[in-house]
Design brief:
Histidine-containing Protein, Chain: A, 4-stranded antiparallel sheet, 32% helix
């Protein structure tokens, strides 16, 4: 198991669209991903499990990955959680 920390940088937090992109990175993964934010934790199995954590800008999230290529998957998820999403993209 690999555990990494990420700090939410998106000004609107992790809402529906970022959660969808994060879930897309997890749904084909043949392993387990668990998120913990200090208030609660969840085994990621849906977009709602991510949204339910209520991650806001500046919050920290611990990402635990267990399975094949877990270090690489954990790094990929850290990058996604730390992305400043811009929906819709500004010119």
């Amino acid at each position: 198991m690999v555990t990494k920390k990420a700090t939410i940088k998106n000004s609107a937090g992790i809402h529906l669209r970022p959660s969808g992109l994060i879930m897309k990175a997890i749904e084909q993964y043949d392993g387990k991903v668990r998120l913990t934010n200090g208030r609660s934790q969840t085994e990621v199995d849906s977009i709602m499990s991510i949204i339910a954590l209520g991650l806001c800008e500046g919050d920290s999230v611990s990402i635990e990955v267990e399975g094949p290529n877990e270090a690489e998957k954990a790094e990929e998820l850290v990058e996604l959680f730390e992305t400043h999403f811009d929906f819709p993209a500004r010119g």
